[in-house]
Amino acid sequence: MDKFRMFFQHFQSSSESVMNGICLLLAVVTVKLYSSFDFNCPCLAHYNALYGLGLLLAPPLTLFLCGLLANRQSVVMVEEWRRPAGHRRKDPGIIRYMCSSVLQRALAAPLVWILLALLDGKCFVCAFSNSVDPEKFLDFANMTPSQVQLFLAKVPCKEDELVRNSPARKAVSRYLRCLSQAIGWSVTLLLIIAAFLARCLRPCFDQTVFLQRRYWSNYVDLEQKLFDETCCEHARDFAHRGVLHFFASMQSELQARGLRWDNAGRSPEPPAVPEPPEVLDSGSGKAHLRAISSREQVDRLLSTWYSSKPPLDLAASPGLCGGGLSHRAPTFALGTRLSQHTDV
Amino acid sequence: MDKFRMIFQFLQSNQESFMNGICGIMALASAQMYSAFDFNCPCLPGYNAAYSAGILLAPPLVLFLLGLVMNNNVSMLAEEWKRPPGRRAKDPAVLRYMFCSMAQRALIAPVVWVAVTLLDGKCFLCAFCTAVPVTALGNGSLAPGLPAPELARLLARVPCPEIYDGDWLLAREVAVRYLRCISQALGWSFVLLTTLLAFVVRSVRPCFTQAAFLKSKYWSHYIDIERKLFDETCTEHAKAFAKVCIQQFFEAMNHDLELGHTHGTLATAPASAAAPTPPDGAEEEREKLRGITDQGTMNRLLTSWHKCKPPLQLGRGEPPLMGNGWAGGGPRPPRKEVATYFSKV
Fold first, then answer.
1. Residue in A101, A72, A329, A92 with CA at minimum distance from that of residue A224
2. Chain B partners within 8 Å of A203 (Cβ)
3. Cellular component GO terms, alphabetically (chain B) (predicted)?
């Protein structure tokens, strides 16, 4: 348990670490999934390629979608992309950065599956056994073309009676597996070289822009999380007050009707004065939630958060919600301040 | 669990220790990968050598590059190399040290793979089965009568016991034993050489430029830790920024709604609600912002960090951080030293 807690804490330290952890977990799940999957080539002429290629490509697609689903940042990115500009202008660079970071992490598990499948060879042998050129192998010299095709279709199945213990089957199978492993290793090598070059050469281009985009995409993620937490707190307070108000109003209603809580024999006691609702609201930290106390107000707050996010300027006076309740002049000077620092 | 936690914390303490841990894991993974990998010699004359060379060389290259990619110092090295000097001079010795340390760690897993491959022998057998001296090991009299392609085709099948049909020429066991023996000898020599090289490098290094080495090591650790701390500070700042931004948003809504409400429960609200006091934590959040409260300033800070890193000199007064710095530190006022020599007669 301690071990898990430690891993958990390490990975929770930043959202990037969380996503790296999820990525790794998905890769490990992929390896386990592949090793426990029972590959079952149909060994029939037209179905082999379908089955082999299907198994090579469909699970990676599923894993890719799972990787996108499991990553919180994909939702944050889409939200940032689709929100109206409002008081805060949108930077396409940040959206691109988040998109590339999400895609990279989501691509890890599918690539692990594809590489495992190629290095193992079964998928490849099943898919391409019918496409082998029979002239490469001397054992097919005295067979008719249709016999050759039938034979080749059965190559992936070692136990089939037509091909059992046949040296021709072993030669073809060996050839295809060798090809599959060569392709697998080449793909691995290419990917690793691409990753290495990307990592090495990135600081050579636009390092300052990269630092800014990384900071602000992290900020967007944190802000969304904090907003959700603040809304949860608000909802809890709202619910608490609502329940207390309900109990207080029930109590006052019952006392107004003259019902007593005590036994019938006793003399009626004067009803206690119900506490004013404001006392229920007292408590630290509720001052800033006092006005937002009805469904419409909460709805309005949430739709303003979406349609008109506050500007990234804390020194200015508290901003407005676009509409017309406030009587102060809008502080649109913020827009000019934001745009003047484009180059240093 | 305590032991595990201690090891984990020790390895996390700095990038070099962390990389040592990763290195160890990759070496083990390399050996495990080899044993899980199903070596599949094609047993065809042209393909054997290509396949074996591929298996001997491609995975080590992959492991080496993987070792470099997983090392955060690679991008740090590139950053340090490409940054403008700003107010902090660049030291090529530090860059060299970082590169050497990364490369050394990344080389361990490939060396393990090559050693395991040679000691196992299958790869060597597959590559050189056509070069076996048939005249010495088998029926030497029959060999010259065979055309070369036929001989090659026969010998290429030596690694595959189920399709080998040349027992009349050369017993398969003999060839396998011969080639495996050479392969293991090569494997052990390779292991011995690399260990010797590592030992010599490690023990002889202090004899040369130890002082410069200590300096490079210190400043390379410093750069690593500085970068980590900068990232952590940026994250803290972003968190504080977001908290204050959201609080201001709620306060603004609160303010607008109170101005708009003319009846209801708010009519009885105390006057102090018009200017709600921020909760206690807001002050310390504002302090964490260190005065950087808008997007433009933050962007300028990040640009300055790259273009004009601060000098490695603390407590030097407060030079402006946001201006365009110039290379080299501020000149000290020239000190006049007067040396007077007295001769003792």
1. A72
2. 75, 78-79, 81-83
3. plasma membrane
Least confident of A110-119, B74-83, B262-271, B309-318: B262-271
Facing residues of A313 across strands?
Answer: B294
pLDDT digits (tens, 9 = 90+) for A99-145: 999 998 899 999 999 999 999 999 999 999 888 888 877 777 778 88
Q: Which residues of A touch B235 (CB under 8 A)?
A: 14, 218, 222
List helix spans (H) across chain A.
2-12, 15-36, 47-70, 72-82, 92-120, 122-128, 145-154, 167-201, 207-256, 277-281, 295-307, 333-339
The ipTM estimated for the assembled molecules is 0.72
Closest CB from B65, B279, B296 relative to A192: B65
Distance of CA B30 to CAs A79, B81, B113, B150, Å?
42, 31, 6, 38
What are the tens digits of pLDDT across the range B199-213? 998 888 888 888 888
- Of A149-153, B79-83, B200-204, B279-283, the one with minimum mean pLDDT is B279-283
Q: At what angle do helices B92-106 and B15-36 cross, to 10 degrees?
A: 30
Q: Do A178 and B296 touch (CB under 8 A)?
A: no
Report whether B41 contacts B156 (CB < 8 A): no
Q: How far apart are CA B51 and CA B43, in angstroms?
A: 10
Residue with tokens 């990525």: A23
